[in-house]
């Protein structure tokens, strides 16, 4: 099961959502995390994401498995991008399909929340003034 | 590093994000005393690098999350995981 | 403001999500409501949606306006399809962008919930046995 | 329909979904007494069609949600809205 993947290519949500087409699923919920221009009032020009790939893929798939166990969903996918990203590009995409929307929404939310706290991926912001730094996680 | 070979083991350490910038390397091989755990290795590394407090780091050995007290064996790969900031 | 629209053409979510690209938005949440093969154990072959278009567009835009007032979002879009739909086709699509994911998820959920109870659109199911009927709403 | 013209007005009625199937038409023009409201019009239509109980229907006059007691005026468009099932 490799429903969680890490890529250095641009994320195309249109290609991903197609994988969730299922005649028994009435609901598809998706989330895209996008590189923003500002973070805490500092102007960002670019982001760099680094992953501890082996463990990230393992933990990501564990989270998707948990979502399938805890919610009445059919499938859950997640792709996280690494490398250099520009403003407006998608850093992470989550998609979930289910018979009904309640499960789809809750599972999608669960996956992105867990990804953001458990999967070993780090973000470095590069600012317009040339400064840069690895973000401080919540720990 | 200068200890008797029979009393020490070699482990591999991988660094990510801020830790990679502090150490200046993505991975290195380290000779540590038999019976070492991530806690003692971190103390040992702290003599060499100006590392952050270990309180907020997590540990992986051979790509599995582990505790700071897990005993290391020869050729283990150890990773100190800074608070994640993906997504 | 016509962020809510009704169409008799297939809904292409890839074209819609592009409209939510915004350098100040770190989060995009979407929901697709899809025609399912089964409803309450009866096998469905096709659906027919009918709308009271003028009021539906008015009420749909009202809901999107409420979402913008109640949640800290930037934009919200919704397209509802009418006419004959096949299994697997998208009947309704909702997309919301925001600085943060909390607002995006909550607003997206609010919009689809309100659409389903307030917007004058009706669904007729056509079953494999040739039978068909307008669904009974919750009223 | 046979009343004195000065005491009646013409209104337009639109039907959707199940109501359209029951009445067999998408819209019709109806002559109703001056002072009619959706409630009295529904009763009047019930003589002609086998309509469902009005309890679960909503009302729109000229594309705005209204109450069953809203007084109708000439050329108003009245819609009885069955429970919605979109999405």
> What's the CATH class of chain B, please?
Alpha Beta
Strand segment count of chain A: 9
The biggest sheet of chain B amounts to: 5 strands, mixed
What is the C-alpha radius of gyration of chain B, as a whole number of Å?
Answer: 13 Å
Summarize model confidence as the mean pLDDT of chain B: 94
Main β-sheet of chain A, in a few words?
5 strands, antiparallel
Strand content of chain A: 35-45%
Question: In words, what does this structure look like?
Answer:
The complex is a heterotetramer, with two copies of chain A (139 residues) and two copies of chain B (87 residues). Chain A has 139 residues and is of the alpha+beta class. Chain A has helices spanning 13-17, 53-70, 101-118; strands at residues 4-7, 27-34, 38-39, 42-51, 73-81, 83-86, 90-98, 121-127, 132-134. In chain A, strands 3, 4, 6, 8 and 9 form a five-stranded antiparallel beta sheet that branches. A four-stranded mixed beta sheet of chain A has the order 1-5-7-2. Chain B has 87 residues and is an alpha+beta fold. Chain B is built from two helices and five strands, in the order βαβαβββ. Chain B has a five-stranded mixed beta sheet with strand order 2-1-5-3-4, with helices on one face. The longest helix of chain B is centred in the middle third of the chain and has 9 residues, at 38-46. Chain B is globular and about 45 Å long. The relative contact order of chain B is 0.26. Chains in contact: A-B, A-C, C-D. The interface between A and C is medium-sized, with 30 and 30 residues. β2 (27-34) of chain A pairs antiparallel with β2 of chain C, so a sheet runs across the interface.
